Amino acid sequence: MKAYIFGAGAQGRIVHDILVDSGISADILFIDEDPKLFNKSINGSKVVGDLRYLLRQDPTQAQIHIALGNPILRLRIAEKIKRHGIPLLNVIHPSAVIMETVVLGTGNMIGANVVINSNTKIGNTTIINTAAVVEHDCIIKDGASISPSVLISGRVKVEVGAFICSSAVILPRRTIGEYAVVAAGSVVTKNVEEKTLVMGSPAKVVEKLGKNFDWRRVL
Q1: How far apart are CA 219 and CA 216, in angstroms?
Q2: Most buried among 27, 69, 87, 212, by the most CB within 10 A?
Q3: Which residues form the active site (predicted)?
């Protein structure tokens, strides 16, 4: 069995090291679209090819984690891979605390010292990064990104592709809309509309996000 990581950048290196720390028995290999990286070693594992290479592999002998910060790209590539029958791999740091009643999808990354509390539902291909806390009865939908040290209070809904930056606080029963961005350190006291950037304490809308939004601003 081979464990592939799509993306040989910073997120991919984090995923790689979590897999190593968790003692995975599969061979760890990188997939990346940059041909300059082919055959190079990243943290001790080889970059073997691009997406076309991956899709030629036997799906019964492979699993893949998509390690891309951009939620739109992450979801788009996940859809292509699922159509070819390659299973998406959850990557969970051994120090994470996930309550037994949590419902967890596939292809998620859960970082070191994360806490996910009772009866929360996590979709697919999400990132829940170092020391984030997701309290009880939350819903975290596909492709959402929760950055280090974020605090999500109980009964919060984070919609598809939403991005919550480091150390933000979301008060109970709030909704973060699809592909919305919550800036670092913000305190969200009201629902956040889809495709908006909110900032501050309390968080207020500072920008409407168009299709050309540069996700590198928050990565």
Answers
A1: 5
A2: 69
A3: 136 (proton acceptor)
145 touches 162 (CB < 8 A): yes
| Residue where the block lists tokens 């070191």 | 112
Are 22 and 79 part of one and the same domain?
yes
pLDDT in tens, 31-66: 999 999 999 999 999 999 999 999 999 999 999 999
In this structure, what CATH number is given to the domain that contains residue 53? 3.40.50.20
Instruction: Let me know whether 45 and 75 are in one domain.
Output: yes
Structure-block tokens of residue 138: 């939350």
Catalytic residues: 136
* Interval 69-84: pLDDT, tens: 999 999 999 999 989 9
Out of 89, 123, 145, pick the residue that ends a domain. Answer: 89
Question: Is 44 labelled a binding residue?
Answer: no
Boundaries of domain holding 26: 2-89
The whole-chain average pLDDT of the chain stands at: 96
Residue with tokens 């590539």: 77
DSSP, res 156: -
Q: Which two tokens stand for residue 145?
A: 């990104």
Whether residues 77 and 98 share a domain: the answer is no
